[in-house]
Amino acid sequence: MLHHFGIEIFVGGNLGKPLSDAAFLCLHANSIEDMIQVAVVEVSSYQLEIPTKYFSPSVAVILNLTPDHLERHKTLKNYAETKCRLFSHLKHNKLAILPVGNQYMEEAYSKYTDKCNLAWIEGNPGIKTNFGSKVATFSFPTTGIVTHLQLGDLKAIGAHNHSNAAVAAFSVLGLDVGIDCDFIKSTVGILSILPHRMQVVCIDAHGITWVDDSKATNVESTLTGLKGLKEHNAVVLLGGVAKALNDRESNGFEQLIDDLKHHKGVITFGSSGAMIQKTLCDGGLEVPCVRAMNLKQAVDIAKNMATYGDTILLSPGCASFDDFRNFEHRGEVFQELALLS
């Protein structure tokens, strides 16, 4: 959105280029016009463990809190407190955006309530998205102004992508860089999602749609992706290295059963494949659930199961480190296999 309006931006942090590159670019800029105007930075909870006096975003967003990285943070309470360090140096004119209704997040944020303006994802003030009409309603904590953004032109699968686009637009408005909602409306149709996030790879010669959601490295992310495919008949690929779940007795995959029962079948693979298959079958999953040894075999089985009009979805719900360097590598391998089909 920012790039579309000619604003000089830097995108990086935990995602791609390190933030230090932005400082280097500013130091070596030939003129004010060449200076970075806005830095869009992803910050990991691991990075937020390091105390800092100077990191103070103009807009700080936490999209969600899921049972992830608990091998490090141990509990969701600790994880939430670490994430909320993002707000520790925000001042009164800065904007914090949080998901509504999460007890851990609200408790962790409470120590910063007097420091900045607060908006909620699916709350008021903040962002509310009507996924039926695909319209986001924005209410701003500083002014009380209410405005609307039509998201129907967004070229992405899944309600969560409409929510993410709405949060991105609200964040841009919160920067107060001279862009209003009417301007943002013109960008919605040209927005593209990042690779491996419900990315449509291709529609093959047999009429099967291939979707890469390799970034779904935990069960909650996979559940979000499945909810965005309610109108599709999918063969779903689950597997890799399942993550620790805060000392819970279950592994979490039983949460997927209600959404998976509307699809054509499930293929599990990787080091946790047998465990995932057992959890789903013991939980009453009635659609076919087949175990493969690896991703390639899972794709081969999925191709035989899918027919014209179906979708093959890689949304593993697991980390990738059993067979791949990272989730990007896993997604790239899946895309190569899809394009060979």
UniProtKB/TrEMBL annotation:
GO biological process: cell division; regulation of cell shape
GO cellular component terms given for this protein: cytoplasm
Chain ranges of the Mur ligase central domain: 33-170
InterPro entries documented for this protein: Mur-like_cat_sf, Mur_ligase_C, Mur_ligase_C_dom_sf, Mur_ligase_cen, MurD
Cited Pfam families: Mur_ligase_C (PF02875), Mur_ligase_M (PF08245)
Claim: Transcription is one of the keywords in the record: no
Gene3D superfamilies listed in its UniProt record: Mur ligase, C-terminal domain, Mur-like, catalytic domain
Molecular-function GO terms, alphabetical: ATP binding; UDP-N-acetylmuramoylalanine-D-glutamate ligase activity
Domain (Mur ligase C-terminal): residue spans on this chain: 196-316
Compartments reported by the entry: Cytoplasm
Pathway: Cell wall biogenesis; peptidoglycan biosynthesis
Chief site of localization: cytoplasm
Entry keywords, A to Z: ATP-binding, Cytoplasm, Ligase, Nucleotide-binding
PANTHER family on file: UDP-N-ACETYLMURAMOYLALANINE--D-GLUTAMATE LIGASE
Name listed for the protein in its UniProt record: UDP-N-acetylmuramoylalanine--D-glutamate ligase
Species the sequence originates in: Musa acuminata subsp. malaccensis (Wild banana)
